[in-house]
Each structure stands twice: as C-alpha cells, then as structure tokens.
Please model this.
Amino acid sequence: MQPTTNAKYIIDIFKYIIMKLEGTNLIEREMAMFLLCRLRMQFTRNAAIKEHLPTTIEKFIIGELSNEILFLRARAMDVFISYGDVKFSSLDMLKRVV
Model:
C-alpha cells in the first residue's frame, strides 16, 4: 500500500531531522530536536516512524542529555520528556538517563 501524500511528507521531514541530528552544526541539531517535539503527534501516529523513535532517541538524544552546552542539553530533555511513552529496548539506557 502506498502511503498517502501527507504520510510521505512526514517521513521526509523525519529523514531531514535525522540528517540534521547527525550533523555538527549546533543550531541545526537544536532545531532538529525542536521539530521532534513539535511534530510528536504526527510522528507517533505514523507506524513507519514510530518503530524508529526508540533507536533515534537512544542514538541522538540520550548523549545530548550530558552535553556541556546547556541549550542542547535542555532541548534533549524536552525531547526525552515529550517521548516519555516510547518503549525502549534497553532498561540499562533508561537507568543511565536517571
């Protein structure tokens, strides 16, 4: 089944966010985390994206929680709280956060 046009755009936006999270530009990484928060409802309603959320948060957000740059740390906490209902595969990762 082909995804609807809106679903395709949401997937494209998610891919763009991942690309920015992988980058070295601090402002773009913060912007990507901001978009993760703002588009939470759309991302959690899309099955293709929802299955990637735990690994995305583990890979890009958890490390930022200990970043010495405060605005990145604060935004990472915002994302982590926004996606608090996501099921993570590793309880050890959650223990590191707490």
Residues 5-22 form the longest helix (18 residues). Residues 5-97 form one domain. The mean pLDDT is 88. Residues 21 and 60 are 7 Å apart (CA to CA).
